[in-house]
Amino acid sequence: MPEARDTLNESVGAGVYPPSFFNGRLLLFTMLVTQAIVFVLGIGRSERPSFDWWWVVSAYSQSVALFCLLGLGVVHAWLLRLDVRGAWVACWLLTLILSISWSYCMGVIGTVMGIGPGSARLPGFVFQNLLAVALVGGGTLRYLYVRAQWQAEVTAQAEARVQALQARIRPHFLFNSLNTIASLIPEQPQAAEQAILDLADLFRGSMRRADRLIELSEELNLAYKYLEMEQRRLGERMHIEWEVDDLPGSARVTPLLLQPLLENAVAHGVQRCTTPGTVRVFGRLEGEQIVITINNPLPEEEAAGAPTAPHHGMALRNIRSRLALAYGERAKLLTEESDQEFFTVLTLPYVEHSDR
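Request: output the structure for the sequence above.
Response:
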């Protein structure tokens, strides 16, 4: 866990650079903020503004904002060569330079067309625009900086939680798997070779970054390989029922969600039962929600009312925290017990493409 906290501190402490200004959401946000400021200026005037005033001021203000965004987007690659503080300061200074250039050009053109401020009032017109852009641009960049820091912290927290989860992967799973492979080598060398490949895939998958979504088919494939590895070890004591054909394999999900739940099903269910047990995985698509249900038999003492093992709840809390970080209220993890079985229901939003 200390290593996970160090990763979080390093990720957030390293700072965040300005975002790409060629971004549809940022463009829409800038236009809305600009129009809101024009509205405030309009209602603050001593006399009621005319339609022509609204149209001219809105068009001019939007043009200044778009011109500044375009300029910052062009030099974005150069900004990334600076240190973090220098990149944000350079953004603000470049915004001022771009606004001066645009205001002067529009003032001159407007004056020539007879609708501008005129030669005498041109310096004052440029200065007023510079002051407005300095205040609004500075506030907007400050908001973007705080928002980028928050996003970086959320991502770092998710990564730290995954690393903590990886650190808690039971060492005996590796040792038991190696023992199983060793027992297969003399009589079933091909099965031993496949077990080695599956084990490599499992540990490779467990090292994925938390902020990169993967296809659901890949997550399901790794989960099934885990169950197969455990079935090789437990033999006839464990059976698998796998019904996930109705799930959209191209959906994007955060990695390492199913394996911890299946570890619980095996370690706290089948393995502790004195009779053979079955782990069932059933998946379906309900509208825009992906629903995956996992159920396993309860050991005799838990079926009789004894408390659940503490590590079982720890893993569930960890998964719930990761779901909250990745999806907010759009995802949930529910559990239910019957007389003889334990049910885990994972619900995720159907995401086809990732913006991250």
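DSSP finds twelve helices and seven strands in the chain.
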